[in-house]
Amino acid sequence: MTTLDYPGELAAVVFCQGCPWRCRYCHNGHLLPARSADAIPWNDVVRFLGRRRGLLDALVFSGGEPTAQHALGAAMAEVRALGFKVGLHTAGCYPERLEKLIPQLHWVGLDIKGLPEDYPEITGVPDSGRQAWRSLEILLGGGVGLEVRTTVPPTWPPDQVESLAEQLAAMGVGSFVVQTCITARALDPQWRHRVGEPLGAAAQARLAARFARFSVRGA
Q: Which CATH number fits domain 11-217: 1.10.3210.10, 3.40.50.720, 3.20.20.70, 3.30.310.40?
């Protein structure tokens, strides 16, 4: 149980298997394949939630990339029927699927990995930036609680973070979190144990002035 994965709510987290991208700093490599021998049956999750009524506020679907799961919408509806709020952590890989899920969602944590042109170097997938930023547009217009998070690659200078933040603020993002990159288990061996340049106090102050809510995690 956590209060970090869904701000302001006591939540349990389900980690969904599978992701179409191969982000160089990913530290959950075991969740990338579409299948796993250690998968927990969904009925077990439902039984767990049934025992936690009145104790938990929400269930967050994380991953991996949850929207890779075609049964995600049905699972969210079942969670709502049990009386829980539904949160989602997503990289926005599938904007069309995400749009269909909005009626089931209370809150989304969206990973924006950079400007659209930055994505292929990070994800290894052409056009992935267009998909993510289209997902951002959908969520901004969808009336759902939204937090945008950016994990800063160890190769970025601080001014690259500020350029990204400027674009996010211009689009109307109200809540922005900068996350320190944990590289000890990075998917790309060349990025393991690399340490990026920290975001200084002056830069943090400039970013905080752009958003209604701003924070740095993992510093």
A: 3.20.20.70
